UniProtKB/TrEMBL annotation:
It comes from Zestomonas carbonaria. This is Putative oxidoreductase CzcO. It is an enzyme of class 1 (oxidoreductase). InterPro entries: Auxin_biosynth/cation_transpt, CHP04046_FMN-dependent, FAD/NAD-bd_sf. It comes from the Bacteria. Its EC number is 1.-.-.-. GO terms for molecular function: flavin adenine dinucleotide binding; monooxygenase activity.
Length: 422
């Protein structure tokens, strides 16, 4: 008689967490408090991106006191300083030990699908799992954006994405073109500039803000003003705020403004938005002055809101002032000959796109973005955590992910309780 086939028992958890960064670990912290069994699945190693996608001189752009991961707030002696890369890793290592999450590292999640009987089937590189509920905590920065134009650039030019940049010495000798002026682009351009490299910078739409104003860090003022507690449902832009580019500023050397105009007075060459390539010539929009003015307008608006707060609350603070441009382009330059400019390296600093292709769930809008309310989707038991502006400004940062994780775990616990009650 043929031997009966034995059924294979699929490991089952109440909750599976996809991603072992600060978001996934924060969820684990609160799930443990609720005694809810769960497992974190991490493709690489815990907090992998912090260890591999930051350049050598990287530091936080928000003060250390905002590092408020659950059960593990910053406890160092420099709360108003800005942790450097290795200090950030040390902080995260401490958080990992504090949480002591149940985790499988080196496990790639290949597909998550709703099961007909309820819950989710999770296919991974380590086999199949199942779960009653799933938290997607893999972040929103998955695929580096490099435009197809890059394929047409001269073969002799080194091209890297911002996630691959480490230091000026790692690039070939010669001049460098940085594409994009968001947080990464502005700071990488500064890193190269301070090292004495000739930098060309294609300026994008990123706004900027002051580091210090009227005697305090701007972040301190905004925190006191309640800005970081504003939910996306209360923000004037509503969900449109998720499309905003982060303001550029730096915590380097104790913190300071990044003023692209000042860099221009020191030899950095600025251009508008990159549009096309004609042979060895890059073509730019003649909108540099417009973009610089727009960034400065945001800078001054933030400072003006602080002025208003100080006045309304009769706070004793040093006098404020309106930023006045230290440089303006004498003429807009529409082209740049790469060879004549001696450019040997290009760094693409234009961001990432999310990749949720492994998630077989009808919870995405026409732009491929997950639709949710504070991380809770319309599909029962499916949640997102750690995305920018999931709920507040700090949702994708050390400062706000704890609030989001605690909220989601409360929803998970309530759903579990209802299921148990029948």
């Amino acid at each position: 008689m043929p031997t009966a086939l034995k059924s294979v028992q699929v490991p089952h958890y109440s909750v599976l967490i996809v991603g072992g960064g600060q978001a996934g670990l924060s969820a684990s912290h609160y799930l443990q408090q609720k005694n809810i069994d769960h497992l974190v699945l991490e493709k690489h190693s815990l907090t992998h991106s912090w260890r591999t996608q930051r350049w050598d001189a990287f530091c936080l752009v928000t003060p250390n006191w905002q590092c408020a991961l659950p059960g593990y707030p910053y406890s160092g002696d420099d709360p108003h300083g800005f942790m450097k890369r290795e200090e950030i890793i040390d902080y995260l290592d401490g958080f990992i030990r504090s949480v002591n999450a149940p985790v499988r590292e080196g496990v790639s999640v290949q597909r998550v699908s709703p099961r007909p009987q309820g819950g989710y089937a999770v296919q991974t590189s380590a086999g199949e799992f199942s779960a009653d509920q799933v938290i997607v905590a893999s972040g929103g920065y998955h695929t580096p954006i490099i435009p197809r134009l890059a394929e047409r650039l001269p073969a002799g030019i080194t091209q890297i994405h911002s996630e691959q940049y480490r230091n000026p010495q790692a690039l070939p000798e010669g001049n460098v073109l940085v594409i994009g002026s968001g947080q990464s682009g502005a700071q990488i351009a500064e890193d190269l500039h301070l090292a004495g490299r000739k930098v060309y910078l294609a300026v994008g739409d990123a706004p900027r803000c002051a580091r210090f104003y009227r005697g305090r860090d701007v972040v301190d003022w905004l925190a006191e003003m309640g800005y970081y507690d504003i939910g996306v449902d209360q923000h004037p832009l509503r969900e449109g705020v998720r499309d905003n580019t982060n303001h550029y500023v730096t915590g380097r050397d104790g913190g300071r403004d990044i003023d692209l105009r000042k860099f221009a007075t020191e030899g950095m060459e600025l251009f508008g938005l990159l549009k096309d390539l004609d042979g060895d010539k890059l073509i730019f929009s003649t909108d540099l002055e417009t973009k610089l003015d727009a960034a400065d307008a945001v800078y001054n608006r933030i400072n003006a809101s602080i002025d208003k707060y100080i006045e309304e609350n009769r706070i004793d603070a040093p006098a404020g002032e309106v930023y006045q441009p230290v440089w303006r382009p004498s003429q807009e330059r529409a082209t740049l000959d790469l060879g004549a400019a001696g450019i040997t390296s290009i760094i693409w600093c234009i961001g990432f796109t999310p990749d949720f292709s492994w998630l077989d769930a009808g919870v995405f809008n026409g732009r491929g973005q997950p639709v949710h309310n504070r991380g809770v989707t319309a599909l029962a038991g499916l949640y997102f955590l750690g995305l920018p502006w999931l709920y507040t400004w700090g949702s994708g940062r050390f400062s706000g992910v704890a609030r989001d994780a605690e909220y989601l775990v409360e929803q998970i616990a309530q759903r579990q309780h209802k299921a148990a009650a029948g």
